[in-house]
Structures are given as structure tokens and as C-alpha cells.
UniProtKB/TrEMBL annotation:
This is Pyridine nucleotide-disulfide oxidoreductase. Gene3D superfamilies: 3.30.390.30, FAD/NAD(P)-binding domain. Residues 319-404 form the Reductase C-terminal domain. Keywords: FAD, Flavoprotein, Oxidoreductase. InterPro entries: FAD-oxidoreductase/Apoptosis, FAD/NAD-bd_sf, FAD/NAD-binding_dom, FAD/NAD-linked_Rdtase_dimer_sf, Reductase_C. GO terms for molecular function: oxidoreductase activity, acting on NAD(P)H. Residues 4-300 form the FAD/NAD(P)-binding domain. GO terms for cellular component: cytoplasm. The lineage of its organism: Bacteria, Bacillati, Actinomycetota, Actinomycetes, Mycobacteriales.
Length: 405
């Protein structure tokens, strides 16, 4: 067969199909996804889609007629099995389809809350457009929203709901501070301050013991016995990569479907891309599995080239963004193992600053809030591994252009 099958019709899958055509794939392309929509941008879900300022049509990754024009067949179905010997996949209705080359763009799913009451009506997650639609349908008869988890997605949801108004918003976090896993204490303190200025009630260092209610959610019980009123609970406690299909077929999995620098899995006829894939990063000297749109796009482009017999390698610097209120956060690099933080601007009183992370004297990452110039600067420094003097960087009078010389 000359058929390329791509499973998962979201950021990675849509880009991979487009790149296959660009790289010269002339055979059939079959894109299979289990959501009932055309591929759409996921980041706006917790931002403009939740606050009601964008519609699903605004979010489409490609216009509706794109797929047919490019000869890409989109099927809404769930793939339940993969037979590597027969080179075929099976759909949930039992149909088997053969492939010449296969791409797994399976993404990730929300980690479920594992406590009493978690299945009650009114407990929601944030992953698909349908999740956000269900939340929005409930808002009219909701007074108190409790969000569990103060990561980016939980905080974005809090900001969108405050912007909408009409409900109280409480965010619960079991760690000592918001965004603890991903940022420096200075950045956490900044976001905690802004959210409380915007009217969000933030409770860190709390353990959720149970969700309570009858036919629907009524409250959230904390481990110390306190009951918080809630008619809507939104859970944002991280994601789990969708690796089951790959695992069952005997592919190597390491916190994600393991891929090499060309996007190949442990089977030379199968690539993987996006949130479901993990790759060994020479720069970070470990397997990394990233959850971001730029990462899904890069994986997809490299994997498509590989499927067409060309050679490209993963090399992009990780980057990410988060929008909350009027704050545009742009993140470059990964900050693991940092031993020094340098600030430019004032995170304590202002709403615009940059936080640069250093490790053994080298800049490894930056969080830039309403600081596009610092973000461009940090990407350049990180890409080219330029030496930067932290003392001079910390001086707000020093020019970024001078620092690069
Ligand atoms: P996914 O988008 O998860 O897509 C995988 C698709 O495969 C899904 O449609 C799934 O239903 C389908 N699928 C899985 N298994 C099967 C199967 N067996 N058969 C058929 N179909 C299957 N990233 C940023 O860079 N910036 C942001 O600001 C940002 N904000 C976000 C906000 C929210 C609310 C969420 C949920 C994510 C956000 N992200 C953000 C992360 C970003 O959306 C993901 O990194 C990106 O969607 C990954 O794309 P993907 O194609 O790898 O996986």
C-alpha cells in the first residue's frame, strides 16, 4: 500500500499531514481522530474559548476545505489496536486498515482526580472543546467555582472565569506555591499576587479530601474538614500521555512513546509526535516529553520528513506561552537544575518583568511577562549558547543589545 496513516487529529496530526504533502508524499493520507471536529487550536480553550470571545470556527487549525484540497482523508473514529507484523490498525467498529507508514499523534489526557465524589455531575476537566462547552453550559446556574490545581491551565481558567464575572473563583493547590513545578518562587509570588488582585481566592498547601454533593456537586471537602461551597469543580492536575496503543504493540515507551532524533519509534515504519512522544535531548541529557504547540509542530515536521525518506533532526529550543488577564507570559528553554535567578523589572509591584534562569553561569531558560524584547533576547542567547554576565543583566539600565556584544 502507499497509504500513510496518521492517528490523532490535533496539532501534531494536522501538521504532520500538511508536512507530508510538502515533503512530497504522493500516496494516500488518512488522518484518524476520535474528536467530532476538524483539528482545532487547543491553547485558546482555557483562554478565549472559555471566556466566550472565540468560537470553534475561529480555532480551526486549517480551513474546512483544506483537507480535501490536499488529498487528506479525515475520519472521525477511534483506533483500538495496532498490528505491526500485518502493518494494520483496527478501528473501534472492527474495521482493519493497512499502512505503508504510520504516525502516532495520540496526545495526552487529563489526569483524573482519584477521590470520593470525583465522578459527581459538575466535576469537569480541561482538554477538549467539548469539555469547555460543558463548563460554559453550566455557568448560568453556577455561583461558586472551585478549580483544583494551580498549574498554567488551572490559572488560565481562573483568569478567564474572573474576566467573565458572575461567579466566585477559588483555586486549590496542594504544593506550597502556584506553578511550583515550573517556575521560580519569584514568578509564583507574582502570579499569586495578580490573581488575588483580580479577585481569585487562592489556597496553597491544601489537600482535597472529597467532592460532596447529591445529584450534582455542592462542595469540596478539604483534609482539615473545611467545606468549600462549589457548584462547579474544574480539575487541572496535569496530563498522562496516551501510550497504551503503542505499549500494547510492543513499542518502546519511556514516559511517552520513545522516539529518536528523527521522530522514529522503535519500529522503523512508525513515527510518533507531540504530547505523546518523548525523546532524548542531548542538550538536557535526559528524555524530555514536552506539552506544547511549538513542540508538536516541530515533531510533526521532522517525522513527516522521515516518513518521506528524508533526514531532519529535532533541534528546536523548547518554548511555551500562557495568557492570563492582560499578562502575556513567554517561556524559553527548560529551567531544570537552575542555581541562580536574575530579574529584570519588578515582579513585586508591577505587571511586566523577566526572570532568567542560570546554571553554573550559563543562561538555561527565561520566563518573560509582557516582555517580548527579553523573550527574543533569551531565545537568541539560548539558541546560540551565548555567554551572558548575570550581574550586568540584572541592571535594569543595561541594554540587551549591549549584553549580546
Ligand atoms: P493532542 O492535542 O492531545 O491531540 C491528540 C488527539 O488524538 C486528540 O484529539 C485525541 O482525541 C486523539 N486520539 C488519541 N488517541 C486516539 C485514538 N486511539 N484514536 C483516535 N484518536 C485518538 N500549549 C502551548 O504551547 N501554549 C499554551 O498556551 C497551551 N495552552 C493549553 C491550554 C489547554 C486548555 C490545553 C488542554 C493545552 C494547552 N497547551 C498549550 C498544550 C497543547 O495544546 C498541546 O501541547 C497540544 O495540543 C499537543 O498536540 P498533540 O497533537 O500532540 O496532542
Amino acid at each position: 500500500s502507499d497509504r500513510a496513516i496518521v492517528i490523532g487529529a490535533s496539532h501534531a496530526g494536522a501538521q504532520l499531514c500538511a508536512s507530508l504533502r510538502q515533503e512530497g508524499w504522493v500516496g494516500e493520507i488518512l488522518l484518524i481522530g476520535d474528536e467530532p471536529t476538524l483539528p482545532y487550536h487547543r491553547p485558546p480553550l482555557s483562554k478565549t474559548y472559555l471566556s466566550g470571545t472565540s468560537s470553534l470556527d475561529d480555532l480551526l487549525i486549517r480551513p474546512p476545505d483544506y483537507y480535501e484540497k490536499q488529498g487528506i482523508t479525515l475520519r472521525h473514529a477511534r483506533v483500538t489496536a495496532l498490528d505491526r507484523q500485518a502493518r494494520s490498525i483496527t478501528l473501534s467498529d472492527g474495521e482493519e486498515i493497512g499502512y505503508a507508514t504510520l504516525a502516532l499523534c495520540l496526545g495526552a489526557r487529563p489526569r483524573r482526580l482519584d477521590i470520593a465524589g470525583a465522578e459527581l455531575d459538575g466535576v469537569h476537566y480541561l482538554r477538549d472543546a467539548s469539555d469547555i462547552e460543558a463548563i460554559r453550559d453550566r455557568l448560568a446556574d453556577t455561583r461558586n467555582v472551585v478549580i483544583i490545581g494551580a498549574g498554567y491551565i488551572g490559572l488560565e481558567a481562573a483568569a478567564s472565569l474572573r474576566t467573565l464575572g458572575g461567579t466566585s473563583v477559588t483555586v486549590l493547590e496542594s504544593a506550597q506555591r502556584v506553578l511550583q513545578r515550573v517556575t521560580a518562587p519569584e514568578v509564583s509570588a507574582f502570579y499569586a499576587r495578580v490573581h488575588s488582585e483580580e479577585g481569585v481566592e487562592l489556597r496553597t498547601d491544601v489537600t482535597v479530601a472529597a467532592i460532596e454533593g447529591d445529584d450534582r456537586v455542592r462542595g469540596v471537602r478539604l483534609a482539615d474538614g473545611e467545606l468549600l461551597d462549589a457548584d462547579l469543580v474544574i480539575v487541572g492536575i496535569g496530563v498522562v500521555p496516551n501510550t497504551e496503543l503503542a505499549e500494547a504493540a510492543g513499542l518502546a515507551v519511556d514516559n511517552g512513546i520513545a522516539i529518536d532524533g528523527s521522530g522514529l519509534t522503535s519500529d522503523p515504519d512508525i513515527v510518533a509526535a507531540g504530547d505523546c512522544a518523548s525523546f532524548y535531548s542531548p542538550r538536557y541529557e535526559r528524555h524530555v516529553r514536552l506539552e506544547s504547540v511549538p513542540n508538536a509542530g516541530e515533531h510533526a515536521k521532522v517525522a513527516a520528513a522521515t516518513m518521506c525518506g528524508k533526514s531532519k533532526t529535532l533541534s528546536a529550543l523548547p518554548w511555551f506561552w500562557s495568557d492570563q488577564y492582560e499578562l502575556k507570559l513567554q517561556i524559553a528553554g527548560l529551567n531544570d537544575g537552575y542555581d541562580e535567578v536574575v530579574l529584570r523589572g519588578d515582579p513585586v509591584a508591577g505587571r511586566s518583568f523577566a526572570c532568567f534562569y542560570f546554571k553554573e553561569g550559563e543562561m538555561i531558560a527565561a520566563d518573560c511577562v509582557n516582555r517580548p524584547k527579553e523573550f527574543m533576547f533569551s531565545r537568541r542567547v539560548l539558541n546560540e549558547r551565548l555567554p551572558i554576565d548575570p550581574g550586568r543583566l540584572a541592571d535594569p539600565e543595561s541594554s540587551l543589545a549591549e549584553l549580546l556584544k
